């Protein structure tokens, strides 16, 4: 699928080659056409731990999240494809880098000014290579620049002390890509950087980085992806284990639709009962569960 194409593209990029862009565009067009009926499934795939281990996975997840939220914003199909293309390449400057280097790039507040400038120049050099190798159209190139703007202006929020007002990207595209990138990056675990569960990642975005984003976009993101994103494992106050299968249509973030997986005793539930917690006066979510630990 798309992730394999992205992995192939990253490999080609390191050798100054680029033959996969037409296939990527066609795949994105298919995804856009299937969003309406498969949004929940796509979110569930994004939050699945096995799809979070590589840069290709992160780029793919960011693009899918951007598509999902962009559709909720009623962006035209053409803009959605261009936006997702930009999201797919927003972090391509990290290709080939080891985990310690990646971790340093995302914690630039601890670096000297000369090292920060070096990171900035690395991003710009990669952008130049990407334009040279990629052969992007006039239509796509501004979206690609928006993807880089989302990185260069934010640097994951670590350039700025908590007391400072965080800058916002100039464009809506950069705003959205940065938000989706930040959420997925929090759940991207690697050596020296433990992954957050989807629920914890969403809470971190809402509480720690709220100043960096327009409140309306942040609210739309949370209500679209969910405080407990679709596919998340949760423990109910009853002791039952459940998986989130959808979000409450009325916008109750704490009350998604869930399917029961096991009884409080650990016995599997045979019928897989689905229920809306917004309609259940007794059950509520007690905690999110780590799928890797199950």
Structural write-up:
With 294 residues, the chain is α+β, with helices and mostly antiparallel strands. Helices cover 51% and strands 8% of the residues. The chain has ten helices and five strands; from the N terminus they run ααααααααααβββββ. A five-stranded antiparallel beta sheet has the order 4-3-2-1-5, with no helix packed on it. Strand 1 and strand 2 form a beta hairpin. Helix 1 crosses helix 3, helix 2 packs across helix 3 and helix 6 packs antiparallel against helix 7. It is globular, with a radius of gyration of 19 Å.
In short:
The chain has 294 residues and is an alpha+beta fold. The protein has helices spanning 2-13, 21-47, 55-72, 77-88, 99-105, 113-134, 141-154, 172-186, 198-208, 215-225, and strands at 233-236, 241-246, 257-262, 274-276, 285-289. The two termini are 27 Å apart.
